[in-house]
Amino acid sequence: MVPFRYDQVGSLLRPERLTEAREQYKSGIISSEQLTAVEDEEIIRIINKQKDNGVAAVTDGEFRRSWWHFDFLGGLDGVEYYEKEAGLNFHKMETRKEGIRITGKIDFSSHPFIQHFEFLKQHAGDDVVAKQTIPSPNMLVYRADQNEEIYKDRETYHRDTIKAYQKAIQAFYDAGCRYLQLDDTAWADLFSEEGHNKLRAKGLDPAEELKVMQDMINETLAGKPEDLVVTMHICRGNYKSNYFGSGGYDYASEVLFGGLNVDGLFLEFDDERSGGFEPLRYVNRKDLKIVLGLITSKSGELEDKERIKARIAEAVAYVPLEQLCLSPQCGFSSTEEGNILTEEQQWDKLRYVKAIADEVWK
Questions:
Q1: CA distance 164 to 137
Q2: At 281, is the secondary structure helix, strand, or coil?
Q3: How far apart are CA 211 and CA 194, in angstroms?
Q4: CA dist 287 to 136, 249, 270, Å?
Q5: Which Pfam families match (predicted)?
Q6: Residue ranges of the chain with pLDDT lower than 70?
Q7: What CATH number does residue 219 fall under?
């Protein structure tokens, strides 16, 4: 049953061959068909590599994407992927200068990600679960550059986003998806006073936005197929092993752990930036899985196994062991640049997650 006791967030380091092919495509040296052929081969390789390393929820590594979120969002009707004058401000660095903007009424008619999932499922086979990751609807609400001529009020904008996402979820389901993960960094703006100030600078009230984020998730999932498992990964940013947000879950804890209609939550708990386990006391459902992201994806050094076991034991004070799972705190390559570690260190991390889980949940 997903999420598994040992799971992963989704993105994997891009191999050099794929990186070179993408650069050749951008330069006009190879065609889109040639790039797709390289992507196909590398995704098949990475599927088999995940299986060889004991990964039970297999992804395509997000190998066809440049960003974990913009590629999907920019493929929705009424949304455009474009080059900006400035990138996102991360700790100690600025990202590439790219983003998304609203160009028309938001909708979902077709999307290449559906075919991408079908390819993943076909080559994953029946001995593992094919896991699809997409950005949360909150990412369109909080990361897209708005157009007041198209959407004069937020309510209509939110309603169209929800409807588009409901169509997308059904399309993935019809393609055979039974394990869908929503990735979301918007919640991080609620975890610190700095984040609250960013919201206020945009004329937004943190308390009101907490309710907006909750409603976007719950209304998007209203009426989803019963046998589709939907989890959410809450992230504080991941770009070249850097982050953009800090703070514990305290401010949003009652909503996150007691007011969302998801089946599981992937949570960052790999360092002090994420706070303690106390907010988990608001978990009020026995069927809600809490996936503890105790293994960092931002560096290659393996954590102390006994320390990880001790932290799992600490979490049990708030959530029963049978509701807990283990994973890396984030993906290894949320953008095509990837985090600062080697591919072998990445596999070491994923094997380590399984090894620890096998000992904890005997």
A1: 9
A2: helix
A3: 19
A4: 21, 20, 24
A5: Meth_synt_2 (PF01717)
A6: 90-91, 93, 242-243, 245
A7: 3.20.20.210
Q: Residues near 219 by Cβ (< 8 Å), separated by ≥ 6?
A: 162
Amino acid at 150: I
Tens digits of residue pLDDT in 228-266 = 999 999 998 777 776 676 789 999 999 999 999 999 999
Q: pLDDT tens digits for 147-202?
A: 889 999 999 999 999 999 999 999 999 999 999 999 999 999 999 999 999 999 99
How far is it, in rounded angstroms, from Cα 274 to Cα 236? 9
For the chain, what is the domain count? 1
Angle (deg, nearest 10), helices 32-52 and 112-124: 40
Q: 165: domain range?
A: 16-360
Q: What secondary structure does DSSP assign to 177-223, as a single string?
A: --EEEEEE-GGGGGSSHHHHHHHHHTT--HHHHHHHHHHHHHHHHTT
Cα–Cα dist 277/286, whole Å: 17
pTM exceeds 0.70: yes
